[in-house]
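Worked Example 4.2. Consider the chain below.
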Amino acid sequence: MSGEIGTHPSDAPSATAPRPNGEPHSSPLHVVALLVIDRESEAFANLKSPHGASDIYIGCAALLAKSAHAAGYEITLFTNEEALVRRHFDALDVVGSVRIEQRAFVSRLDRSVQHRSAHHKLDVIRELAQGDDGRTSMLVDLDAVFLRPLRLGELPNARQIGCYDISGAMRAESAGRSDDDIRHLTQRFRDGSPRWFGGEAIAGNAAKFREFLEYLDEVEPRYWELRDRLYHTGDEAPVSSALNLYLAKGGAISEMGDRRTIARWWTAGRPFRQPDFSAVVDRAILHLPADKEFLASMASDAFDPRTFIAAYRRYARVKLFGRRIKSLLFDRLRRGQPNFVARL
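Applying the procedure from the previous section yields the following C-alpha cells:
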C-alpha cells in the first residue's frame, strides 16, 4: 500500500528554477529514504538511549521530507509501519510530495547488532534498480537535511554512480581496519588502499544501480558470512566493497564530497580533524549523525534553511563547548586515539 501526503503548492521552489549561487541540476531528482520502526534493538548508533528511538527517527524523517520539499524534490519513504508514520507526519504538518511505501523489513540480525536497520538499505538499492532509467534517485539517510537545490554537476550523469568518499575518516576511526574489511569482502586490493564510501547518500539511475548490483551480489554473501569478524557492520561495508569492484572494472563515479553535494559533520569528538562548520554549510545536503535529537526537535516547524542553520549554530555552540571542556579534562588520561572537537 502506498499513498501521498498533500500536494506541491504552486509557489514551491522548483528543482529547475534559477538560483543565485549557481545553476541547479536540470534532471529530475527522486529522493528516497528508509525508516524502519525498530522496537527490538538494544542500542542505536549516535543516540543516547534506545528509549523513544522510533519517535526520534520519525522526527528526522519528517524534517528530511520538509527540507527536500523546500528544495523542490519529491521524496519516497520506505517503512515497515506506514500507518504510524502517516499519523506522525499529519501531526507534524508534513506537506508536499511525500510518498510513503509499506515494506516488510524483517531483520536476520541479533538485537545487539549496531546499525541493524541500516542493512535494509541494501533492499532499497535493489528496488531502485527496478525503477526509471531516465530518473536519478538518491538514497539519503534520515539524519540529513537539504539546505538548497542541487546545482549543475553536483549529481552523477547517466554513466555515473554518485557516492561520498570518507576513506580518510574511516581509516582514522578504525586504525586501518576498514581497509581490511573491504579486502576480506572483495578478496582483492591487498597491495593498495581501497576506498570507503559513506552510507548517507548514494545516487544513480536504475540502469547504474542494476550494474552496481552485479558487484553487490558478489560481496553480500561474504559479508553475512564474515560480519562478526569485521570492523564495521551495516550497509557501508558491502556497498563500499561493491563500489571498489565496480571501479576496478572501469565503472565511473561522481564523488559527491568533492562536488560539494554533501558533507558529514560531527558535533561528537572524532579521531580526525574536521573542517569548520562554516566551510560545509554551503553544501546541498548536510548529514548530522550525532544530532538526531536536535533534528527531530525541529520537525514540527516549517523548514527554512536560514532559520535551521541559525538554530543549529546555537545548539552546536553549546554542545561543542561542553565537548571541548570534556576533551581538555580527559586528554591527559587518554591513551591512543586523539579526540578532535569541531569548530563552527
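The chain has a mean pLDDT of 89. DSSP finds nine helices and eleven strands in the chain. Compare this with Example 4.1 before moving on.
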